[in-house]
Specification:
Length: 342
């Protein structure tokens, strides 16, 4: 039986070409693992969500079975595929009423598209207009090859009713993209195991208590201000964690950075949270808060950068072609897409 490919041979390091069946099976497995991990947090119809993501995973690379694509994959050399491999899977999913599946399969390389703009294309909704005729001509051949590999197939989804919104689609797309790109990286030996620090919320709260206490002792000449800061800190620390929303209108200089974190740590303990995410305006405020949290929350033997992650983008007022970004990929994106002064 012919062996159809999903990825060509790799040169650095040298790896053999990856069979289409191996890749699709791996992507399906990884996508299902992602669904299991999010299932306890999902409030919608989990069966529909699982079915939609699975269908997209099964057919996301269907167009790679085109003979022209297989010629390139079999010879390697780093050339791009001549035929857009996404359109075939999208067309097949739409034909079987898996509209949400078609949306995320269509988006797994280019990102989610504007639904109103896609609807304006009428019968070419989510389709590549330059490829629609070719896809219709060869779709049966692609499906025959897919079925001959022994891969799973999906039946018509006539009873499926979507309850998705924009956020749901982003999460579903993440399940697919993480699975697809993760398996591709693994195939080329570019995927590495990631370790992450344990929450250890109780220990971090004790460390924060100690940090705040030491701050007060170091500046005992400001006794009244320190008493006020301690009161605010204790008030936030001891606040009930049952409510889902709080507002802290304490003025500047009263220790909100540590006081609010004390409450967040208590909430993380009580609600068994995995992460605490702090969103702040302005890069300088982010940097100041990160410095405090790395001093106050990192425990012995831990890497401060792993415990408290700092994430932001800095934009400066300068011509676009001299734009300096912390990430080169972002810099290139700006240069290509925006032809004006930042």
């Amino acid at each position: 039986m012919a062996v159809w490919l999903a990825h060509s041979v790799g040169k650095n390091p040298p790896v053999p070409p990856q069979p289409y069946s191996t890749h699709v099976s791996s992507v399906l497995r990884r996508a299902e693992e992602n669904i299991v991990r999010l299932s306890s947090y999902y409030g919608g119809d989990l069966s529909y969500f699982r079915e939609a993501v699975r269908a997209a995973a099964i057919y996301h690379d269907l167009g790679k079975l085109d003979d022209e694509n297989q010629k390139v994959l079999s010879h390697g050399g780093g050339r791009g595929l001549p035929v857009n491999h996404v359109d075939a899977g999208t067309a097949n999913l739409l034909a079987n009423d898996f509209v949400e599946s078609a949306l995320i399969a269509h988006a797994h390389h280019i990102g989610l598209q504007s639904i109103p703009e896609e609807r304006a294309k009428d019968e070419l909704f989510l389709r590549d207009p330059n490829l629609a005729t070719r896809t219709e001509q060869y779709l049966a051949d692609y499906l025959s090859k897919h079925n001959h590999t022994g891969l799973k197939i999906v039946e018509r989804n006539a009873d499926g009713v979507s309850d998705w919104n924009g956020l749901t689609r982003r999460i579903a797309l993440s399940c697919l993209v993480d699975a697809d790109h993760g398996d591709t990286a693994s195939n080329y030996q570019k995927e590495f195991p990631l370790s992450h620090p344990l929450p250890r919320w109780e220990e971090r709260l004790k460390a924060l208590d100690k940090y705040v206490k030491n701050l007060g002792e170091k500046s005992n000449h400001q006794e009244k201000r320190n008493r006020l800061r301690q009161q605010i800190y204790q008030s936030c620390r001891e606040a009930d964690t049952t409510p889902s929303f709080y507002a802290c209108d304490s003025p500047v200089g009263t220790g909100k950075t540590t006081a609010v974190m004390a409450h967040l740590l208590k909430a993380a303990i009580d609600k068994k949270l995995r992460h605490i995410i702090v969103v702040l305006p302005y890069t300088n405020i982010i940097k100041q808060s990160v410095d405090v949290y790395r001093q106050a929350l990192v425990l012995d033997g831990e890497n401060a950068d792993e415990v408290v992650a700092e994430h932001h983008h800095q934009a400066q007022t300068r011509p676009v072609y001299t734009y300096q970004s912390p990430r080169r990929a972002f810099s290139v994106l700006i240069k290509v897409r925006y032809k004006f002064q930042l």
